Amino acid sequence: MIANYGFKDGSGDWFLTIDTDKCDGCGQCVAVCPANALEVGEDEYDPFREEPVARVKHEERKKLRYTCAPCHPGYGEEPPPCVAACVPGAISHSEGWRLLYGR
Length: 103
Known about the structure:
Elements: E1 2-9, E2 12-19, H1 28-32, E3 38-41, E4 53-56, H2 64-68, H3 81-85, E5 91-93, H4 95-101
Antiparallel strand pairs: 1-2, 2-5, 3-4
């Protein structure tokens, strides 16, 4: 299941997406997130899943554009820390950041 956290406004799409079918709940993304916006917990979109998954903290969901922005320009051509740390490739960022920062 694809979990999209964030928002869309006139300036673009500002989502952090987690593919919960790929996420193994290891928590590596949580450990490297400089904004402390991620956590591991119950999959709120799939009530039948027993294993924990990564998710965006509730209080960060409507401000991800600002929470995640420092990770994009400061890491050059490298992916944001959470994306780079996710071995199964479950995390991605929406087009808004790629358009804004040229990736």
